[in-house]
Amino acid sequence: MNQVQQRVFQQAVQGALGTLNSCLNTELHFRTIRANIGILGSLEWKR
User: How far is CA 7 from CA 10, 11, 16, 17, in A?
Assistant: First the structure.
């Protein structure tokens, strides 16, 4: 593989990883919020 191809490939991989990372962060964020709401809900019921 020549240098130009290698650079293009590297940028494509980095872009894909960035997208994946962003999706995972969003999913984790929503799960954390949902878990927190669940905890708050259970605390409210105990009162």
Answer: 5, 6, 14, 15
Q: Which domain holds residue 37?
A: 22-47
Q: Distance of CA 25 to CAs 14, 17, 21, 31, Å? A: 16, 12, 6, 10
Would 42 be classed as within a structural domain?
Answer: yes
Contacts of 9 (CB under 8 A, 6+ apart): 1
Measure CA of the first residue to CA of the last residue in the chain; give whole Å: 67
pLDDT tens for the 47 residues of the chain, in order: 899 999 999 999 999 999 999 999 999 999 999 999 999 999 877 76
